[in-house]
Design brief:
By secondary structure, this protein is mostly helical. It is built from six helices and no strands. About 70% of the residues lie in helices and about 0% in strands.
């Protein structure tokens, strides 16, 4: 049985993923001794917070039809399911990655990990996009994908700066 998602549901997952992403950077910052590294990672957490706000704003722009629930949910478990999907999708903000941090990671390793996780998120959204019928806002999912691509580009720019500083 195929389940049709709505743009609203995908935005709810995207918002959760951004919250998880901010936690990723904050945890990495906690483990750093160098003050400039801490500040840099905290700025990336703040960037995730702004990304979350962007998705919240985009979610506010969707139509009533794009918010229509497509399944009967008498116990209101859908939000729990969406949160579980967001937490376990294997990409950006995956809570399991946080447990792997031990404080010995280099800044380069943290950024490379973040880029890889962002790329996984893009693949996740591309898969979800196919599961959102046009009438439920498929076109809105491309906005999420575009934002994530921009984030990969930003992180790649940071990585180049790190390479430049260590060269």
């Amino acid at each position: 049985m195929m389940y049709d998602y709505t743009a609203k549901e995908v935005f709810e997952m995207a918002i959760q993923i951004e919250e998880n992403g901010a936690a990723f950077y904050r945890r990495a910052a906690e483990l750093r001794e160098d003050v400039s590294d801490k500040l840099f990672l905290e700025s990336l957490a703040d960037m995730e917070d702004r990304h979350k706000e962007t998705f919240e704003g985009m979610k506010q722009q969707i139509s009533d039809l794009e918010k229509t629930q497509t399944v009967f949910d008498p116990h209101e478990e859908l939000l729990l399911y969406l949160k579980a999907m967001a937490d376990s999708h294997g990409g950006e903000g995956n809570p399991d990655i946080l447990s792997l941090f031990n404080g010995k990671e280099t800044m380069e390793e943290i950024i490379v990990t973040a880029i890889d996780l962002e790329k996984e998120s893009i693949l996740f959204y591309l898969g979800l996009e196919d599961m959102v019928p046009a009438k439920y806002g498929r076109d809105k999912i491309s906005g999420i994908i575009g934002e994530e691509k921009n984030h990969v580009a930003q992180l790649s720019g940071f990585l180049k700066k790190i390479h430049g500083a260590s060269a």
